[in-house]
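RECORD TYPE: inverse folding
INPUT: structure tokens
STRUCTURE:
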């Protein structure tokens, strides 16, 4: 037992990679371009979104694209205002009408759209824009325009509401999506098209039920001293994934125990090409040096970089806690960064200003 523990601690200490303090710190905050925010989910589905408020009404316009080679961009509109049973949603770019959609028909067509696995809609009333040529036409107009205006119909005696959505950052956001999904230069790119054939983007496969786990992985998962049974409905909502690796093995990022109101614990399990499975421990820093840990909190897998993020929130706001970023190196998860903030004061969270506990200030490049 002592020998095994010593080996684990040595492995943990080795799984630390100093990084230059002047380098960018990915994974802490989502990139943004003049009002448009971009990000990707655990499976590799990516989106560009703009959240715009007009008095008490807000509108979220979201361009979503899954990882499959044949996946086309989808447009989703969400608003907090009540929409009538009838009436029309009108989309204009620089004053020109692109589409006027009867709300009743829009509601009826929603079942025909299959949302990407891992996509989590915002609260409020949301609609998928008509797919195919209609989406292509809207995106082309938005790319070349300055402002998208969404005309929301009135309810009762209220006046109709026009919500302007600036488009200055849209092209850069869509270019980010192309690059992140490795589509730049292919026929499937939104912005930077080329002659290369379409291909799958970096991705992971969603695991929506513990029943999908291979027996060897399920055995490691259930034997973990910190894991407990999870309600199947809750499991399905926690974005567990299977990461296909180059040597035909797989890395599973799966929930471990019921989540609290602010934190969901996960574990990483490696399933080798021979079918054998083992838990992958991660390194964290303590006052006396690196330690091995079982758990990853609020796990985010970044397929394009093969990196894993943990974000333990010390409060419901998330302005304090512990943040880690690891990289998969073929056999384990290497600690690239760790940051913490101990002051829980209710301020808006800004992880870019958290104090680094790894790399340390005197770490060499």
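DESIGNED SEQUENCE:
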């Amino acid at each position: 037992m002592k020998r095994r523990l010593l080996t684990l601690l040595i492995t943990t200490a080795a799984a630390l990679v100093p990084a230059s303090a002047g380098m960018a710190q990915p994974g802490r905050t989502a990139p943004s371009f003049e009002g448009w925010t971009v990000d990707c989910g655990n499976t590799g589905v990516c989106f560009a979104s703009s959240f715009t408020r007009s008095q008490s009404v807000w509108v979220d316009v979201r361009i979503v694209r899954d990882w499959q080679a044949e996946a086309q961009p989808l447009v989703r509109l969400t608003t907090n205002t009540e929409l009538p049973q009838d009436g029309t949603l009108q989309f204009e770019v620089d004053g020109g009408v692109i589409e006027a959609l009867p709300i009743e028909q829009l509601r009826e067509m929603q079942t025909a759209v299959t949302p990407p696995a891992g996509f989590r809609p915002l609260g409020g009333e949301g609609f998928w824009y008509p797919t195919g040529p209609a989406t292509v036409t809207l995106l082309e107009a938005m790319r070349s325009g300055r402002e998208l205006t969404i005309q929301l119909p009135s309810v009762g005696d209220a006046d109709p509401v026009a919500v302007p959505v600036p488009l200055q950052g849209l092209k850069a956001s869509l270019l980010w999506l192309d690059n992140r999904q490795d589509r730049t230069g292919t026929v499937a790119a939104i912005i930077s098209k080329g002659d290369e054939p379409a291909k799958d983007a970096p991705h992971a496969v969603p695991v929506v039920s513990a029943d999908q786990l291979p027996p060897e992985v399920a055995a490691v998962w259930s034997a973990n001293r910190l894991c407990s049974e999870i309600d199947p409905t809750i499991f399905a909502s926690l974005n567990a994934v299977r990461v296909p690796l180059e040597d035909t093995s797989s890395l599973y990022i799966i929930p471990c125990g019921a989540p609290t109101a602010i934190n969901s614990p996960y574990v990483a399990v490696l399933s080798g090409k021979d079918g054998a499975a083992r838990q992958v421990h991660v390194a964290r820093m303590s006052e006396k040096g690196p330690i091995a840990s079982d758990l990853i909190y609020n796990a985010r897998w970044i397929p394009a970089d093969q990196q894993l993020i943990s974000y333990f929130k010390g409060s419901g706001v998330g302005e304090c806690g512990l943040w880690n970023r690891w990289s998969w190196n073929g056999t384990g998860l290497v600690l690239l960064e760790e940051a913490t903030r101990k002051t829980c004061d209710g301020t808006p969270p800004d992880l870019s200003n958290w104090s680094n506990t790894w790399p340390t200030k005197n770490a060499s490049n």
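NOTES: Residues 45-180 form a domain with the Immunoglobulin-like fold (CATH 2.60.40.1880).
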